[in-house]
Specification:
Elements (H helix, E strand, L loop, with lengths): L8 E7 L5 E5 L4 E5 L7 E7 L2 E4 L5 E9 L5 E6 L4 E4 L11 E6 L5 E5 L4 E2 L5 E2 L7 E7 L12 E10 L1 E4 L8
Antiparallel strand pairs: 1-4, 2-3, 3-14, 4-13, 5-15, 6-9, 6-14, 7-8, 7-13, 8-10, 10-11, 10-12
Length: about 180
């Protein structure tokens, strides 16, 4: 699902919000989200307006990324109970062009994420068997600040597809 073409998705920004950008390069028919201008850690997520998603079982994430410097995009999720997790799977790594990557959510190892500064939580523990049956937001971070325009260091996400089962959002779900 292309985030730019689905009116049912909301884009959410965390950390250094002013540094996140949606770049619209009409001359090459490309629109992408980027973290190049983030002066501290930042994250971008997508949230469906009416549903959460069940990422248990055979759920899959596919994305097209272009990464420079020592950056790697990592998936993040916000669970319906308000907890945040960051995954160990990441983009293909630095490249001069966009690269498609696909991974099974079941294969991801998770750590707690402190969404305020967009950093791993201090506990340093892996979250064993998190309940991914009710996920409110899905997105990405590279857990690093950007180095500005150019190829010095930053991440770009052209599109993301998430394959899971829709879960109706209840009134008790977190909305922050």
């Amino acid at each position: 699902m292309l985030f730019r073409s689905n009116p049912n998705l909301e884009v959410r920004l965390y950390g250094h919000k002013e540094g996140t950008r949606i770049a619209d390069q009409t001359y090459n028919n490309q629109v992408y989200a980027m973290t190049l201008l983030c002066e501290s850690n930042c994250a971008i997520t997508l949230r469906h307006k009416t549903s959460n998603v069940d990422l248990s079982g055979v759920a899959t994430i596919k994305w097209r990324t272009r990464v420079s410097g020592f950056h790697f995009l990592r998936p993040i999720v916000k669970l319906a109970d308000g907890r945040w997790l960051v995954g160990d799977k990441y983009s293909a790594g630095p490249s001069t062009n966009f690269v498609d990557t696909e991974f099974q959510v079941l294969d991801i190892r998770w750590r707690n994420l402190d969404i305020g500064p967009v950093t791993e939580s201090r506990d340093g523990y892996w979250v064993d068997y998190p309940d991914l049956t009710n996920v409110e937001e899905i997105g990405f971070t590279d857990l690093m600040r950007g180095s500005g325009h150019g190829s010095g260091g930053g991440s770009r996400l052209d599109w993301i597809e998430v394959y899971g089962k829709p879960v109706p959002r209840t009134a008790g779900s977190s909305t922050r």
